[in-house]
């Protein structure tokens, strides 16, 4: 039935051991080395990501500070511009008001002189009016 051939068994055993050593050297050790390197690379990348996240928090804080400073400076510049424009507008209004006042005074003076001229003219023509009124009353 089954015969056990010792030399054949030894040959298979030796062949199995040689194959195991060859596979270990050519496949298993490089595969294990690759997996270890990959694990180390993943760990290094995770550590770098943690450092970057800590660094981004710091950079975000700096960016927020810079933005806040810029907003404050913009508000100061805007306030200064508004005050300058208010001052300029007030000076223009004051200048125009003084011009209007001068024009009004000259108008009042001109009106007063015209009033006086008209009054003098009417007074000078008063005898003519009296004569014309007397003539009209006499016709009645």
Describe this entry's structure for a reader.
- The protein has a domain at 49-114.
- Helices cover 95% and strands 0% of the residues.
- It has 140 residues and is mainly α.
- It has two helices and no strands.
How would the blueprint of this fold be written?
Blueprint: H1 6-124, H2 126-139
Transmembrane segments: 6-28
Keywords: ATP synthesis, CF(0), Hydrogen ion transport, Ion transport, Membrane, Transmembrane, Transmembrane helix, Transport
GO cellular component, one term: proton-transporting ATP synthase complex
How would you summarize what this structure contains?
The chain has 140 residues and is mainly α.
* Rg, nearest Å: 57 Å
The counted number of beta strands is 0
* Annotation field: number of helices: 2
Poorly predicted ranges = none
Strand content: under 5%
Structural class: mainly alpha
Head-to-tail CA distance between termini? 180 Å
Q: Averaged pLDDT, please?
A: 91
Taken in chain order, the helices and strands follow as HH
- What form results from the Cα inertia axes? rod-shaped
Helix content: over 70%
The biggest sheet amounts to: none
Family: Belongs to the ATPase B chain family.
Pfam families: ATP-synt_B
Membrane topology: Single-pass membrane protein
Subcellular location: Endomembrane system
